[in-house]
Design brief:
Helix content is 44%, strand content 15%. The protein has 11 helices and 10 strands. A 6-stranded mixed beta sheet has the order 1-5-6-4-3-2. Helix 4 runs antiparallel to helix 7. The longest helix is centred in the C-terminal third of the chain and has 45 residues. The chain is elongated.
């Protein structure tokens, strides 16, 4: 952290425009001479000493999807962070937030929205690796760095609400966030990485519907709807465990892997897990199923084939992996209620365990 006198600050930075009005700590754009180059524009964000320490720690972080923090300076008894001024390259406006971008184009198509969220998760992952949680992710804090109607690039800005993640630490219970995008648990407890995941899910919903969270529910592609539901689950333990996990799910919907571009496989339980070992286990199970089906059909006929397929293969796969394409038939009131959903899975496992015994008794095979 550099310490400057008031005169040194004025000699180095030419304050251009105030971006914040009526706030205790102000934010400006300022120009600075750069040796061997034209003057550049930066954002000067005033803050207290505690937040200055956060920005100082984050200044070592770099991600193509997060506004760069160049340095933190102290001028007298004031602190300020010198950060990147994110311009919307290719746009008729100098700067453009994600909120303004959606305002221009309306609800985004699935591919564009997922692509933006992949960038968001990648930038957030770097942020979390530094041990910090953002706490105020929303469309107004995401800037468009490359303007494109189908493939925009973004940068996360405004880290003023960021804090270090210390599980069990209740020393900082300041409520930070924006209604609609704020995880419910942060009202009464400290924010965690999964609180940011909740915000990402809300942002994805906003891009796909063009409406603020809670106003309109996305009802398009049920796979994408399932991602939003998982990310915005009221229980943090049932959300994606980290930004990388959600990024993987989003990439699968974008067809990053061959398996995700085969409609039939996408519908099968086990191939929606986004985990290699589970997909291999599912593949082995389905290959075994084919072999068992041939043997059972030859020995027990159609009845035996159906019994093996339902009781010993399909139901266990659903319970162990996920509901696959069947998830759409489960009422939302059950999907969103973790207790009810676990009861449903338990009932399915009990059914697969005892139903074959009963069927064998009825058919006189037991």
């Amino acid at each position: 952290m550099r310490t400057l006198t008031e005169q040194e600050f004025q000699n180095e930075f030419l304050v251009h425009k105030e971006l914040s009005r009526g706030k205790k700590y102000r934010t400006y754009t300022a120009m600075k001479e750069c040796p061997g180059d034209a003057p550049k524009t930066f954002v000067l964000k005033e803050m207290d000493e505690k937040h200055a320490a956060v920005y100082e720690s984050l200044s070592e972080m770099w991600s193509p999807y997060t506004a760069e923090i160049y340095e933190v300076i102290k001028v007298g008894d004031r602190f300020a962070a010198v950060t990147q001024y994110v311009c919307a390259d290719g746009c008729d406006k100098e700067t453009l937030t994600l909120s303004e971008y959606v305002g221009r184009f309306g609800a985004l198509d699935k591919k564009t929205a997922l692509s933006v969220c992949v960038q968001l998760c990648e930038g957030l992952a770097q942020f979390h690796k530094k041990g910090f949680v953002h706490r105020d992710l929303k469309p107004d804090n995401i800037m468009i760095s490359k303007y494109d109607s189908k493939a925009p690039q973004i940068k996360i800005v405004d880290l003023g609400g960021a804090k270090a993640v210390n599980i069990g630490d209740v020393s900082d219970m300041t409520v930070v966030g924006t209604l609609g995008y704020q995880a419910p648990e942060t009202i009464s407890s400290s924010a965690t990485n999964r609180s940011d995941i909740y915000s990402v899910g809300c942002i994805l919903s906003f891009m796909l519907t063009g409406q603020e969270p809670g106003v309109k529910r996305y009802s398009g592609d049920h796979y994408v709807a399932a991602i939003i539901e998982k990310a915005t689950n009221d229980d943090p333990s049932h959300r994606y465990k980290d930004a990388e996990s959600m990024e993987n799910a989003l990439r699968h919907e974008l067809g990053a892997h061959l398996i995700d571009r085969i409609p039939f496989l996408r519908a099968l339980p086990g191939f929606r897990t986004h985990t290699l070992w589970k997909e291999l286990a599912a593949a082995f199970s389905y290959i075994s199923m084919i072999y068992i089906a041939v043997v059972c059909f030859d020995r027990f006929g159609v009845g035996g084939l159906i019994e093996i397929f339902v009781f010993y293969i399909t139901v266990p796969l659903i319970v162990v992996f996920n509901m696959g394409d069947l998830l759409r038939f489960v009422p939302r009131s059950i999907r969103r209620n973790n207790r009810r959903f676990m009861l449903l899975r338990t009932a399915a496992m009990m059914f697969s365990t005892f139903a074959p015994i009963i069927v064998d008794k009825l058919l006189g095979r037991g």
